[in-house]
Every structure is written in structure tokens, then in C-alpha cells.
Amino acid sequence: MSLEGEKHFSQRSGILRAAVLGANDGIISTACLILGVAASDATRDAILVAGIAGLVAGSASMAIGEYVSVSSQRDSERADIAKEIWELEHTPERELAELTSIYQSKGLSPALAKEVAEELTKHDALTIHLAEELGIHRANLAQPFQAAVSSAGSFAVGAGIPVLAAALTSDSNRIGVTIGVVFLALLGLGSSSATFGGVKPGRPMLRVVLGGAVAMAFTMAVGNVFGAAVN
Fold first, then answer.
1. Measured between alpha carbons, how far apart are the two ends of the chain, in Å?
2. pLDDT tens-digit series, residues 68-118
3. Is residue 45 within a helix (H) or strand (E), and if so which, with residue range?
4. What confidence score (pLDDT) does residue 169 get?
5. Quick check: helix, strand or coil at residue 19?
6. Residue 228: what pLDDT?
7. How many whole angstroms separate alpha carbon 222 and alpha carbon 210?
8. Which residue from 223, 150, 182, 199 is spatially nearest to 28, judged by alpha carbons?
9. More confidently predicted of 142 and 25
């Protein structure tokens, strides 16, 4: 049986995390901003300006934050790679013994573990030591720019949903329609993320919907109190 087509959902975890985090944050934070301003009896123009400002600011913040954090991860990976290169050049016997010990801990006999370590070291010592000692795979090193663009894009898409809902409805229906659209978007996000991650959709959908409901309720309460105080 060929293993080439075997699917492992954990391989998608990095992409899934960035997409879900960005879209979820975009939907909830922008919806909360719009609903909070709307609850204070603000005008339609003020509500839309707040929503668009939240979309732009949130996208920029997500991009910068992701770029900085992933750059730090990349710097750490590069430092580990440089250290491993130095150790392989200056202390190869010690590195071979360390790799042998790793294979022994996985259940190989001492003789077989040493033989495997020697053969793999001949082939590509750096790659095998990075993978076995540090869990680093050079093909999957952190990509700050890619992470920044992905997070900003998913945030903008998510934030656009409540902004459009607020823009396309009348003043009397704006809050109710926005809440309804946001709940549908969160249900869709929970379902799609569960499908993409290979898990049952019930818990992820409940998680995102409850989190969004609490956040929106709290923000609307604050907006209502603030509007009453100003008036």
C-alpha cells in the first residue's frame, strides 16, 4: 500500500491557526466595535467609520504582530541551526553519540542505533540532527512575511462581514441584522475550521459562537452605558 497519499491533519496546524485566529478576531472585534458604537445611538456614518477604521487598524496590527512574532521564531531557529553546524564541524563524535542515544531511546538496540546514526550522518548530518534533536525541518522554517500577509488578509475578510452587514441595513434593523450575520459567520468559521482540521464540528462551532456572543454582549452593554452617560 502506498503511503504517499496518506493525510495527516496535524500538518495543517500552522495554516489553520493563522487563518482561524485572523478571521475570528476580524469578525468579533469589528462586530463588537460596530455594535458598541451603535448601542450608544451614534449615527450611521459614525458606525461605518468606526467599523472601517477597525478593519484597517486590525489588519495592520495583525500583520505587524504576526511578522514580529514569527521573525523572533525564525531568529531562534537560525541560531539553533548555526549552533548545530558548529557542533557538527567541531565535535562530530559527540554529535554522533547524541544521535545514537536518541535512537536507543526510541527502542533500537545500541548496535543498530549506532549503525543507523552513522548511515544517516553520512547522508545529511545537519538535516537529521536538526530533525531528531530540535524538531526543526528546513522546509518548514518560519516565514514572517507569509504569516503577516495571511493574518492580515484573513482579518480583513472576517472584519468585512459585520461592516457590510451594518452598511447594507437600515438604522432600525442594523443591530439585529449585524448580530445575526455575525453569528452565521461564526458558525461557518467554526464548521470550516473543524472540517479543515479533521474534527467534528460541534465543539469548534459552539466555542466560537459562545465567545463571540459574550464579547458582543459585553461591548454593547458598555456602549449603551457610555451613550446614556453622554446624553
1. 73
2. 988 998 899 899 899 999 999 999 899 999 999 999 999 999 899 999 998
3. helix 44-90
4. 86
5. helix
6. 44
7. 19
8. 182
9. 25
What are the CA-CA distances from residue 150 to residues 21, 25, 67, 153 (Å)? 10, 13, 10, 5
Q: What is the mean pLDDT of the chain?
A: 83
CA distance 38 to 45: 10
| The C-alpha cell that represents 206 in the structure block | 459552539
Q: What are phi and psi of 121, to 5 degrees?
A: -65, -35
Cell numbers representing residue 156 in the block: 480583513
Question: Does the CA dihedral 135-153-12-20 come out positive or negative?
Answer: positive
State how far the Cα of 229 lies from the Cα of 231, in Å rounded to an integer.
Answer: 5
> Model pTM?
0.73
C-alpha cell at 52: 472601517
Would you tell me how many other CB atoms lie within 10 Å of the CB of residue 137? 11
